[in-house]
Amino acid sequence: MDIFWIKAIIVLVIFGLSLVVAMYSTWAERKVAGYMQDRPGPNRAGWGGLLQPLADAGKMFFKEDFIPAQANKWLFIAGPCLAMLTALLSSAVVPFGDTIIVGSDEVQVQGIEVNIGILWVFGIVSLGVYGVMVGGWASNNKFSLLGAIRAASQNISYELAMGLSLIAVIMMTGSLSVRDIINTQHGGSWNLLYQPLGFIIFLTCAFAECNRTPFDLPECEAELIGGYHTEYSSMKLGFYLFAEYINMFVSSCVVSALYFGGFNYPFMDKVAEALGNDATGHNIATAIGFGVFFMKALFFVFFFMWVRWTLPRFRYDQLMNLGWRSLIPLAILNIVVTGIGLMFEIRWFSWVAVVIIVGVALVQAAMKPKAARGILEAAPVR
Amino acid sequence: MQLTNRSKKIDKSEMSLAERMYLPAIASGMAITLKHFFKKKPTINYPEQKRYLGPIFRGHHILKKDEAGRERCTACGLCAVACPAEAISMVAAERQSGEEHLYREEKYAAVYEINMLRCIFCGLCEEACPKQAIYLRHDEFVPVFMSRDEVIYGKNKLVENMDKRYLREGWK
Questions:
Q1: Which of A128, A170, B51, B111 could form a disulfide with B91 if both were Cys (CB 3.0 to 4.6 A apart)?
Q2: Selected residues 344-373 of chain A with any CB under 8 Å from a CB in chain B
Q3: A127, A119, A120, A142: which is closest to A243 by C-alpha?
Q4: Which residues contact A251 (CB under 8 A, 6 or more apart)?
């Protein structure tokens, strides 16, 4: 078989996979929401509600596809398309597995292997806000516009901290390629173990970038009706919601690739040895790695939902304070500390920053006993 | 001094660093939601699973028959008089000879109709009945109507089926 066709099949599989995962994320979201609120969630369409996404899609298609009279028609249509396009594009550089051997060719299980993979992800994610922005503006509606502006400013603020927290990872790897970053984590040396602070910052920013709770201010119903998609109906709305779930899946993939070792798992060398060195053994080992990566990504999808059904939404000023006054300084601190560590070749050095912060917090909590913190007593009656 | 102990004392002092990091609070919150995730769900999946509503629930009306399978109702009209919603109407008839196995007394209800849109399921008919003929069963609902002509329930829907006799707790 031609190497082109193998690659085409891999790309199609990744494309289809992210669509299917996004589709079933909508089901899983409602199921998780139900379980966390002590109810069973959707269970009428199919076994355990498994046909629910199809029913939802069917419903979406039969809704009236409405375009407001004063809306900018082409941009109104372009908005959801852009959101969908950018969401799908960013999965291109994610390495889902090692290589597969077909005949004499060795093909990487990845859309495209570029040596600036992480930059690609960032570029596409930054573009992602255009879908929201264009859609919100073209609706010609105050609330949509406000939602779009919120989304834009939020994404820009959190992209900074996200990029800065990543720089520490890139410093340790010395490469922008996602595959290289994964390969350096081979043998249990996951970046999470060296970059705890960076991981927390990155994860928080990933929530903000995906417009997920607790940072889902762009679609804050209480203040903005529906946010940027107030005027959308039918499958255009479906595209926006779908794009959000694809983003969630892709960012889960990126998080597990950057910090959780991607397709690496403990004792993988021994497993590969046991499976043998020929093509079949190698392919099976790759399949196991793919499964492991997929599990990690799905865990983070679950984590996204878990956080959503736990935390309330941030206020807008709290969001900006957290982004600009906490996460960005912390990310810069992380870079400095990692740099010092690398200078002396101590890879775990950023734990020092974590230990110092936790230590200060503990000391402060101990120095300030609960009683002395001015608990308001009811005024005594004379 | 307070009249009740319900008012909460609020700590408005500045948050400590540990509190400002949010992470301990987030972790404890997520532990709570995870605990609920694995909890047994109290939901009763209604059409498949039904809950026991108790021995005195007032549901579907039934016109009882006696042990020999004879209708108990004598069409005295006391239930219709007692009904605050005026949902019950009936037409009395005289029992002919040869019908003794069908009706217990000499007079019976040839037509007995309950308008289920009017009925408020108060159970006063049951209390008024001197012959213990009408009951509101505790184990069955009046089903949903799909059109107006299903609303009036005649004897075909009300009279007890001898194969599936209605027995309340404490009855034989």
A1: B111
A2: 357, 360-362, 364-365, 368, 373
A3: A127
A4: A206, A209, A210, A300
- The larger pLDDT score, comparing residue B18 to residue A307, is at A307
What letter represents residue A310's amino acid? T
- Per-residue pLDDT, B1: 62
Surface of B (38-97) touching A: CB under 8 A: 39, 41-43, 45
Question: How many other C-beta atoms lie within 10 A of the C-beta of residue A349?
Answer: 17
User: What is the rounded CA–CA span in Å between residue A184 and residue A191?
Assistant: 9
Quick one: pLDDT at residue A374?
46
pLDDT at A373 over 50: no
**Residue A239 φ/ψ, nearest 5 degrees:** -60, -45
Instruction: Note every long-range contact of A6-13, with CB atoms under 8 Å and residues 24 or more positions apart, other chains counting.
Output: A6/A100, A6/A102, A6/A105, A6/A107, A7/A107, A10/A107, A10/A109, A10/A110, A10/A111, A11/A92, A11/A111
Residue A248: phi and psi, rounded to 5, are -60, -45
Query: Hey, is the C-beta of B15 within 8 angstroms of any chain A C-beta?
Result: no
Kindly list the strands in the beta sheet with B152-153, ordered across the sheet, starting from the edge strand earlier in the chain: B88-94, B107-115, B152-153
Q: Which of the pair, A377 or A257, is modelled with greater confidence?
A: A257
Distances (CA, A) of A214 to A5, A143, A210, A238, A318: 43, 20, 11, 22, 11
Answer yes or no: do A40 and B42 touch at CB < 8 A.
no
Q: Does the beta carbon of B26 lie under 8 angstroms from any beta carbon of chain A?
A: yes
pLDDT at position A176:
87
CATH class of B61-164: alpha beta
* B139 and B112 Cβ atoms separated by less than 8 Å: no
> Tell me, what's the pLDDT at A1?
62
The full set of domain ranges for chain B reads 61-164
What does the alpha-carbon distance between residue A306 and residue A29 come to, in Å, rounded to a whole number? 9
Q: Please, where are the H alpha helices in A92-138?
A: 117-138
pLDDT value, residue B122: 92
- B138-158 pLDDT, tens digit per residue, is 888 888 889 998 899 999 989
- What is the rounded CA–CA span in Å between residue A307 and residue A286? 31
